[in-house]
Known about the structure:
The complex is a heterodimer.
Chain A: H1 2-14, H2 23-29, E1 35-41, E2 51-57, E3 60-66, H3 83-86, H4 88-92, E4 102-104, E5 113-115, H5 118-136, E6 141-143, H6 161-168, E7 174-176, H7 182-192, E8 208-212, H8 216-219, H9 227-237, E9 240-244, E10 258-260, H10 267-280, H11 286-292, E11 293-294, H12 311-315, H13 326-333, H14 337-349, E12 353-357, H15 367-381, E13 415-417, H16 421-427, H17 433-436, E14 450-454, H18 466-474, E15 481-486, E16 498-501, E17 509-512, E18 524-529, H19 541-552, H20 555-559, H21 564-578, H22 585-591, E19 593-595, H23 606-610, E20 624-625, H24 629-637, E21 669-674, H25 688-693, E22 697-701, H26 702-707, E23 715-720, E24 723-732, E25 739-743, E26 750-751, E27 754-755, E28 780-786
Helix pairs in contact in A: 5-19, 7-15, 10-13, 10-14, 10-15, 13-14
Chain B: E1 9-14, H1 23-32, E2 42-48, E3 51-53, E4 59-61, E5 64-70, H2 79-83, E6 89-91, E7 97-99, H3 109-113, E8 120-121, E9 128-129, H4 135-139, H5 145-149, E10 155-159, H6 160-167, E11 186-189, E12 203-205
Parallel strand pairs in B: 1-11
Antiparallel strand pairs in B: 1-10, 2-5, 2-12, 3-4, 6-7, 8-9
Amino acid sequence: xxxxxxxxxxxxxxxxxxxxxxxxxxxxxxxxxxxxxxxxxxxxxxxxxxxxxxxxxxxxxxxxxxxxxxxxxxxxxxxxxxxxxxxxxxxxxxxxxxxxxxxxxxxxxxxxxxxxxxxxxxxxxxxxxxxxxxxxxxxxxxxxxxxxxxxxxxxxxxxxxxxxxxxxxxxxxxxxxxxxxxxxxxxxxxxxxxxxxxxxxxxxxxxxxxxxxxxxxxxxxxxxxxxxxxxxxxxxxxxxxxxxxxxxxxxxxxxxxxxxxxxxxxxxxxxxxxxxxxxxxxxxxxxxxxxxxxxxxxxxxxxxxxxxxxxxxxxxxxxxxxxxxxxxxxxxxxxxxxxxxxxxxxxxxxxxxxxxxxxxxxxxxxxxxxxxxxxxxxxxxxxxxxxxxxxxxxxxxxxxxxxxxxxxxxxxxxxxxxxxxxxxxxxxxxxxxxxxxxxxxxxxxxxxxxxxxxxxxxxxxxxxxxxxxxxxxxxxxxxxxxxxxxxxxxxxxxxxxxxxxxxxxxxxxxxxxxxxxxxxxxxxxxxxxxxxxxxxxxxxxxxxxxxxxxxxxxxxxxxxxxxxxxxxxxxxxxxxxxxxxxxxxxxxxxxxxxxxxxxxxxxxxxxxxxxxxxxxxxxxxxxxxxxxxxxxxxxxxxxxxxxxxxxxxxxxxxxxxxxxxxxxxxxxxxxxxxxxxxxxxxxxxxxxxxxxxxxxxxxxxxxxxxxxxxxxxxxxxxxxxxxxxxxxxxxxxxxxxxxxxxxxxxxxxxxxxxxxxxxxxxxxxxxxxxxxxxxxxxxxxxxxxxx
Amino acid sequence: xxxxxxxxxxxxxxxxxxxxxxxxxxxxxxxxxxxxxxxxxxxxxxxxxxxxxxxxxxxxxxxxxxxxxxxxxxxxxxxxxxxxxxxxxxxxxxxxxxxxxxxxxxxxxxxxxxxxxxxxxxxxxxxxxxxxxxxxxxxxxxxxxxxxxxxxxxxxxxxxxxxxxxxxxxxxxxxxxxxxxxxxxxxxxxxxxxxxxxxxxxxxxxxxxxxxxxxxxx
Lengths: 787, 218
C-alpha cells in the first residue's frame, strides 16, 4: 500500500490530480530506471480477450503494446489487441478513475459523493446487508448483468467473488439471458436445441456467403477475435460475398461483392419471400428439410399441430391469405423484388453457401422471429453440416481451454431475465414464469432491495428508457441499497449509495478466461502478471469481498484460507486434471501468454447431418424445429403484453416501432444503435483519446438530411415519446434512407431534459420481447431536427 | 525490418484490408505520449454513391466506402521542409523528416504547407510534432509502432523501393493530393472502389475535425 500510494501521489501531484497524461514529465525525471514488461489482457466484453503487454518505468505505465510472438503466419498469428486494448494506459490513468471509496450525499441519482475510508465502507455495507437479509430474505439481493470485466477468474463480475460471497451468505436472485443475445440464444434453443455454428475459417471453402447484420471487423476487431480470420478467409475463398444490413458496415470493405440494404427488423419478410420463390421454382432442398427438420411442410408437422401451420403454408398464404411474394416483401424490406428473386436462385444453386447472422437482427422487438427465419434459410438450401456451410448462427470458437471459476453455490434458484431487473425492483412479487419468463420458480418471492453492480453500466446507460429508470432507481423506498464497483465513474454509479474503486487487470494477478475468447482455431490463455500497484486506494474485488465476508461472519467459508493467487493456482491445477495440455501453473505465471497448437475448424452440426438418429439435437423432436414444439406449447399458456404473440414458426411480425407501425406517421425514421470500433458497449467512453478519433456521430442518410436541412457537423436532436438525444450529425449515404443510427454505448448525460451524451438507449423502450423477455432495443422510431 | 544505410524509408497501406479501426492512431498516440488534438497518424473516411427510390417503394444504390490511414510520408520533396523558417524541420537518416524541438518556434508554417496534414501542433510543448517513423525503433530493426499494431495487417514500413516492387507505385488516391506535388514515400494498394486524387464526387471525412472532446462526461 505504501508503494502504491507513493506512485499514485507522484503522478497525481505532477499533473494536478488525475490528469490523463502522466508520462511526459515523469519520463524525464526518471530517465535511468529500466523499462519492465508484463503481460495483461483486455477483458471487457467484446467477446475477445486480447493480450496486452504493459511497459512500465518506476511503477508507472509508459506505454502498452500487444502480442508480437511467432512469425505471424496465419496459424501462428499474433493476437493483436485493437484500439480498445491499446488504450489500457488511458483506462488506468483517467480523469474519471475512482481512487477512493465514495458514499452518496444528497438525493440518490444526483451523483454527489464524499470520500470515505475502506473501513467505513465495509462496516456500513455489511450492516446494510444484514438488515436486508433479516427484513426481506436473501431473494432481495441481486447482482446486475454487467460486461465491464468479463472473462477473468477472480475479477469476473457476475461469476466471481461477489457471487461467491452472496452465495455463502444465503444466496441471491439469479438472472438469465444477456443484453447481447437474449433473443437469438433463446430462438436457437427452440430451433437447434443450442447455437451450433461453424468456425469462420471454414468460410474458405464456401462458394457463396450471405451475412445478415454481421460485422466481425468492428465488433471483434482485436486479434483475439474473428475479424482478421474473417478477412483472411474472404481473401482466400474467392467466393461471392453479400452483406444484408441497413448500414454499409466496415466488414463490407475489401473483398465483398455486394451490399443489400434492408429496412431494420424486416429480415423475416425477406426470408419468407425467398422461400416463396424457392417453392414456386422448385429450388428447395426437400431431402434435407424432410430428413433433418420438422414443420417446413405439412408432411413434417407434429401430429397435434393444426392444419396449415407449417412454414410453407404460411409462405403460400394458406394460413393468413397473404402470399409472401417478392413484391410483398419488397414493400416491407425496401429490397427490389427482382433482387429478391435473383437472390433466391443464387442461394439455392450455389453450393456450399455460408449463411451467418450477427446479433443486430435479434435486438429488435421481433428479434426471435428474424433470428429463426435466417436459420430457416440455411435449412431450405441444406447447406448445413458440410465444409463451407453454416447454420445461420453467428460463428464461434472451435476450441477453448477453460479454467474453472470460483465455486458459487447459490442455494436460490429463482431467476429473472436480466432485462427485467427494473421490473423486479418495483413489482418483483408479481412476476411469474408465464408472464415474465421467470425461471427456477413460478413466482418471485421478493422485490429487489439490494443491488451489487460490479463493472457494469446497465443500471441506466445500457438499459432502456433512461428517464423511467431514473424514476425507479431514485426512489430509495424501492431498492434500498445500491453498491457499485468500478474503475471509473459512470452514469450508472450516479445512482449508487456506495462506490468502491476496483483495480484494473493491469493492477492484479488473474487469468483472462480463455473460454470467452474467439480466436477461432487457435486457443490461448493469458495470465495477468500485475504490471503496477493499484492506483490510489483501489483494490481487487477479492480483497473487498474478503473484508465483507469477515464482517458477515463467513470469512473461512469464503476464502477457504486462500489468497487471490492461491485461488488462481488452485483453480488452474483443478483444471489441469481435466486438460493435460495445460502447462504447469509456474510456467503459465512466468510466460503470461501461452498459445496452443491450432485445431481443426469446427463445422456446425457435422455429426448430426452424418447420423441424425444417433446424434439427435436437444430439441423435443431431436430434429431441427422450424415448427417449435415448445413454442407451440408456450403459445397456449403464456400471458403476453398487448400486441405480442408467440408463433411456432418464424413468420414475419410487424414489430413495435418498426416500418409498418402506425407510430411512423409521427416519427418517420427508424433509429438503431450499432457496435462501435472505439468501445465495447459503454466501456472506453471515458477515454478521450478514443473519443477524439471515434467520436459519437449520428448517421443521417443524405436524402433524409436534405429534407431536414442537416449538414455534417450540425448539432441535431433525435426524439420520440421516450426522450430526446442530442449529438453531431454525420450525413452519409452509408445508411438506408428512412433510417438513422448512432453507435450504442455513449454515456447518457442529461441537460435540461435532453441527453447530450447521445445515448441511443434514452430512446429505447423498456418493453421486453414476447418470448425471451429480452431487450428489443433497435426498434425505435424517431424524428430528427437541427438543434 | 532492417533498413540499409542509404535507403529511403516509406509506408505501404493496403486499403482493401484497412477497416478504419484506428488502432494505428491510438497505439501511436500511446507510444509517443501525445495529447488529445495531436494525431501523427490519421484515418480518413471516403464514401460516395447515389440512392434511387423506385416507384414501387424499393431502393437501389451504388454506395461505396474506404479508409485511408496516413501519417507522415517522409516525402522526397517535402513542402513542410521548404516552409520551415528556422530549419527545425529536416530530413535525417533514411530520408526521415523530423522536427527538432530546440529549433522549432511553433509557427505552424509546416502544417499549413503539408498537403497531408502530417505536422501537428502540440499545445503542451508549444512545438510542432510529427511522425518520425519511430526512429528509435527503426534503429533497433523494429517496425514503427503503428505497423505492428494493425490488427488487419494493412500497414507495412520499410525501404520504399522494395515496398514499391512488391505493392506498386500508387499514392495518388482521393482524398490524398496528387503524388507529383511532394513525392511521398508511400505506396497504396487500393480498395476496389478507391478513386484517383482530385475526384470530387465522394464525401471525405476526418471525424476528429467536427467536435471537441471533454473529460467532463458524467
